[in-house]
Amino acid sequence: MNALREILLQYYILLRWCILLIGVVNLEAQRKPEGFLNVSSKCLGNIMRVDVGPLGGNLLDIAAVINNSTILLTPSLASQCGFSVRMDQLGNTMIYASLQNCFAEYVEDKAFTTTLHLRLHGNRMAEDELYQVSKTCHYTTWASREIVCDRNYIEVSVERQGKVTPGQYVLPEHPVQGSNPRPAAKKQLIDGGFRIATLVFFTPEEKPMTVAVAQRNGYGIGTTPTRLTVRSPKNAPETYTQDVAGVPMTVLKTSTIFEKKWLTTQIDAAAACPALAGSVFITQNTIRWFLPRHIETLISYGPFKLLEVHMGVDGQRLDPAEMAARQYSLFVGDRHIVVEIPVGAVGGYFKSHVQDDQYLMAYTIEPMLELLWTEGSTHKNTHYKVLHPITTQLLSSPPQVIDNTVLEERAFKLLIGPFGSDVAVMNISLPYEVLSVEDCNVRGFNVLEHKSPNSNLKAFTVEVPFTDHAVLQTTEMGVKVYSLHMALGLVVLPEFAPFSHTAFVEAKLVDKVPSVSGGCDHQNFNVLVKYETHGLNFYTMVGKQILTPDMAQQYSLMENGTHFSFAVPFSDPAVEFEAVEESSIRSRLIVVLKNPETNTNIQEFSVACHFPSTLAECFPNGTMTALAVKLESVPSLNPSQLTLRDPTCGPSYSDDRYAYFVFTGRSCGTTRKFLSNVMLYENEISLPDKVRKELKTDEPDFGLQVSCYYDTNKPHAVAFQSRPRRSDPYAKNARGEMKVAIRLAVDESYSVFYRVDDYPVAMYLQQPLYFEVELLTRSRNSKLSLELENCWATLDEDRTSQPRWNLIINGCVNPVDPHRVILHPVWPDARVQNPSHFKRFQVKMFAFVEDQDNSSRQFFVHCDVAICDTTNHLGEACKQTCSNQEKAIKGQRRDISDVHSFKHVSSGRILV
Ligand SMILES: *[C@@H]1O[C@H](CO)[C@@H](O)[C@H](O)[C@H]1NC(C)=O
Ligand SMILES: *[C@@H]1O[C@H](CO)[C@@H](O)[C@H](O)[C@H]1NC(C)=O
Ligand SMILES: *[C@@H]1O[C@H](CO)[C@@H](O)[C@H](O)[C@H]1NC(C)=O
Ligand SMILES: *[C@@H]1O[C@H](CO)[C@@H](O)[C@H](O)[C@H]1NC(C)=O
Ligand SMILES: *[C@@H]1O[C@H](CO)[C@@H](O)[C@H](O)[C@H]1NC(C)=O
Fold first, then answer.
1. Which ligand lies nearest to the CA atom of residue 103 in the structure?
2. Topology of domain 399-508, per CATH?
3. If you measure from the C-alpha of residue 428 to the centroid of ligand 3, how many angstroms do you get, rounded to a whole number?
4. How confident is the model at residue 209 (pLDDT cuts 50, 70, 90)?
5. DSSP-assigned states of every residue in 403-453
6. Exposure class string for 741-757: b at 16+ Cβ within 10 A, else e
7. Residue of 619, 652, 663 to mutate, ligand 5, most atoms within 8 A of C-beta
8. Which of 854, 848, 728 is nearest to 794 (CA)?
9. What residues flank ligand 2, with Cβ below 6 Å?
10. What is the mean pLDDT of the chain?
11. Which ligand approaches the C-alpha of residue 65 most closely?
12. Which atom of ligand 1 is nearest to 102's Cα?
């Protein structure tokens, strides 16, 4: 039903905003109202109301008290005597009583006292509970006629005045038609001396009845000093239905005959009440109730004048402001007085129903209209009051699950509703278990009930942390997906009718990973870290050190809530020197963001820059200076041990990263060469042989050459280069970050190798030589692979010298070599962690030595290697097999774009 949906929607919106403001109701408190009834009473004009709190499934007996005896109110006695009872969806009970009910004690028609006994009993109670309510209501504004239409009776109270005539009762010819009004002046009060003889009903046929018979038939007749009250059940046979302005009305029309000795008099009393059906129209979102403005049946004395119209609910009049607040409206038209109430408005309530596990609600409200009118010039006025209960048909309103999950809080937050206020949660079913509400709260689900501030609806909230084992976790393309399937077990109170509502929710969590970027200016690395305030927690490593507050200060760290930046000088200890070039140093800074819980890397950032640096200077007076810096590739180097060619010339200053040398053209083994226009002074910084021999390390040797070119007039031009050592088996790489080594294994197991010191290695003819080529990289980057491009042997150390024997050509075994190279696969072991960084091959010696004269019984093996990026699948060159079907090393002629870099490597001297 759209109307309801709309209200529910408004309710949701409201609930969303008010959720923290709404009182949270303890589920327990609602379930057990045993103990005390909360009884209060109220005077509402010519009626009174007794409110009794929820009965909690118990039964209530209501008895009237008179002359110290109690009389149980049965439904028929209630309608005869002016009582009615209603109960709402939660068992709250309201007892209405006419002030002039049969059991009221009155004082001068001004004060009316009604006393009731209430007895609460039921299976859930050990003992019956008794309550007494006694209420005195003062009502002095009696109109000539007071009509009360309650749900079960029609009551009319008129002044006890009549025209007294002598003689016996004779039926009037045209009773109470108003066509022949008699002058009021002749009327007089019918005092206590008169007694009621007969009651005449007009149905509309005249139907006389003695008082005793009338009372036996369920009618109520009562007198007070000044008034006569006649009451009829709504469905009594002596009433009739009449259509008034299109509205069916139940009409009670009577004449009461009084007699005193030989005097008689009669009092006419008529009332008309709208039938419960036929006067209410329920459209999509509105209840409309039509009451005829001018009820002709009741007008006897001339022109009608409507003086007042009031609206109320549950017998209580409301002021216009309150009506507006509740969105009620009242229209007084020519023919009808129309009351409009939105479905779901305050003042009514929803009662829940379960049909086939389907949740339905009906809305009930009891509006009231009060009219005051006068007729003609008689000053006769009528006060007309209707209490009109309205209940809609069952409205289908499937509860909704609103997912209020806030990802940062790592918990599902569900709002489920709306439900009528008569619904309670019993349990929650999860995939493998059913939990009571208490269990749920112990587990942190925080099941709460929220009441809407101005409707009778409620909703439940449940919070389930993503970490709870009821939450299913999967990963979809790197995104964590949390899902929760649950069913709320609910009941409708007080009858405990069970039903359930399922909820399936899913949340996708992309951890907001911080990012690092940066670059260099001429002296600093500038690093910018971007992070989310509620993102992943992390700490920062700069080089090998954690970024502490002290360091942050040193690096002038600046932060603004989403970013921080800092500057690391290129000479900072956290920076690694990768290579020394002519007038610059290439340095690398590595910044890693780590997860403090797992210590795993979240982000790695590495940047290398060339910083201009004067590493060597030549002065006109012949002094030369040189600065040697420790490179990343030689971690165990101690710079203080470096010397010039003359091992006695150590650094004049050194620390763990630098060595600074001062020398002259004539000292420390500096050599001098005369070239065409210049004189070249050269020296070299390295570890003295003695120290180097003691170092058992795989690291490449450190060697720096210092050159000064002196023009005839002005000294000039400095070159500062790394330089390979001649007997070194390692190829030097000017850039320093990746090196390739070739080594000779003792046997086919490739487990023991000849060391640098073992060269020249002596071998016998025909003895196989086992070579291994390795990519030396500290990064263990498994994405790189080493491929042999060309391998050959020469007699001279110079790799370009002739003669030359080709072993591997363009990645393939030389097919014309009669003693072909045998390739050995590489398996991982303790030493070989990444087989793609290795290649092994076997060569027989005589293949090339045999054809030479005996004068040169030494040779060298050289290889050109390619370092391929295996993740680059675009170029297949690094993966192709040899086209001539020969067993081959992967790869053929390689496209330069596939190749990360090319390296050269040469073996040491091998003697035959
Ligand atoms: C209550 O008692 C009074 C006098 O004691 C009597 O007049 C009256 O009829 C009694 N009412 C009922 C309902 O018994
Ligand atoms: C009711 O009983 C009380 C005492 O039990 C007595 O004082 C009172 O007069 C009685 N009332 C009537 C109307 O009988
Ligand atoms: C859960 O509550 C429902 C009420 O809706 C009830 O029918 C069901 O039996 C309960 N289940 C358990 C295991 O208590
Ligand atoms: C924080 O600094 C970064 C980088 O300078 C800038 O992009 C961002 O807008 C700044 N944020 C605030 C809130 O100032
Ligand atoms: C040579 O010149 C440099 C720079 O002017 C100076 O520092 C150094 O002491 C001089 N050396 C000699 C031996 O005079």
1. 1
2. Immunoglobulin-like (2.60.40)
3. 8
4. very high
5. E--BGGGTEEEEEEEEEETTEEEEEEEETTEEEEHHHHHHTT---EEEE-T
6. bbbbbeeeebeeebebe
7. 619
8. 848
9. 67-68
10. 80
11. 1
12. 13
621 CA closest ligand 5 atom index: 1
- Quick one: which atom of ligand 3 is closest to the CA of 426? 2
Which ligand is in closest contact with the Cα of 666? Answer: 5
Q: How far is the CA of 52 from the centre of ligand 2 (A)?
A: 27
Beta carbons of 708 and 718 less than 8 angstroms apart:
yes
User: Nearest residue CA, atom 13 of ligand 3?
Assistant: 434
User: Contact at 8 Å (CB) between 158 and 144?
Assistant: yes
Query: What is the distance in A from the centroid of ligand 3 to the CA of 489?
Result: 6
Q: Name all residues whose Cβ lies below 6 A of ligand 4.
A: 560-563
CATH topology of domain 739-911: Immunoglobulin-like (2.60.40)
- For residue 612, CA distances in Å to 148, 154, 336, 523 come to 105, 108, 98, 8
Closest CA to 120 of 44, 187, 33: 33
Range 839-867 average pLDDT: 72
Could you give the CA distance from residue 358 to residue 352 in angstroms, rounded to a whole number?
10
- Distance (Å, rounded) from C-alpha 220 to C-alpha 233? 9
pLDDT digits (tens, 9 = 90+) for 751-766: 888 877 777 777 777 7
Token pair for 837 = 């960084």
Enumerate residues 6+ apart whose C-beta is below 8 A from 524: 567, 568, 569, 570
Distance 500 CA to ligand 3 centre (A): 9
Q: How far is the CA of 559 from the centre of ligand 4 (A)?
A: 9
Q: Which of the listed residues 65, 66, 67, 77 should we mutate to test ligand 1's pocket, taking the one with most ligand atoms within 8 A of CB?
A: 67
pLDDT digits (tens, 9 = 90+) for 415-466: 998 999 889 999 999 988 999 999 999 999 999 998 877 677 899 999 999 8
Q: How far is the CA of 902 from the centre of ligand 2 (A)?
A: 121
| Residue 790 alpha carbon to ligand 1 centre in Å | 131
Are the C-beta atoms of residues 718 and 705 closer than 8 Å to each other?
A: no
| Cβ of 67 below 6 Å from ligand 1 | yes
- From the CA of 424, the nearest ligand is 3
Q: Is the pLDDT of residue 286 over 80?
A: yes
Length of the chain equals 912
| Global pTM value | 0.56
Which ligand lies nearest the alpha carbon of 533? Answer: 4
Q: Give distance in angstroms: CA of 623 to centre of ligand 5.
A: 6
Rounded CA separation 106/95 (Å): 19
Give the separation between CA 517 and CA 495, rounded to whole angstroms. Answer: 66
Say which CATH class 616-711 falls into.
mainly beta
Q: Which of the 8 DSSP states describes residue 392?
A: P
Given a cut of 60, whether residue 252 has pLDDT beyond it is yes
* CB of 500 shorter than 6 A to ligand 3: yes
Rounded alpha-carbon distances, angstroms, from residue 89 to 28, 452, 716: 18, 16, 104
Q: 646 C-alpha vs ligand 5 centroid, how far in Å?
A: 21
Structure tokens that stand for 398 in this block? 């499937």
Q: Are 105 and 136 in contact (CB under 8 A)?
A: no
Q: Which one of the ligands is nearest to 517 CA?
A: 4
pLDDT band at 902 (very low <50, low <70, confident <90, very high): low
Nearest CA to ligand 4 atom 7: 563
User: Which runs of consecutive H residues, i.e. helices, occur in 195-332?
Assistant: 211-216, 320-325
Rounded Cα gap, residues 505 and 494, in angstroms: 31
User: 414: which residues sit within 8 A by CB, 6+ positions away?
Assistant: 401, 402, 403, 404, 405, 461, 462, 463, 464, 503, 505
Alpha carbons 777 and 633: distance in angstroms, whole number? 9
Round to whole Å and give the CA distance between 328 and 316: 14
CA terminus-to-terminus distance, the chain: 102
Closest CA to ligand 4's atom 2: 563
Domain spans, the chain: 31-274, 279-391, 399-508, 521-612, 616-711, 739-911
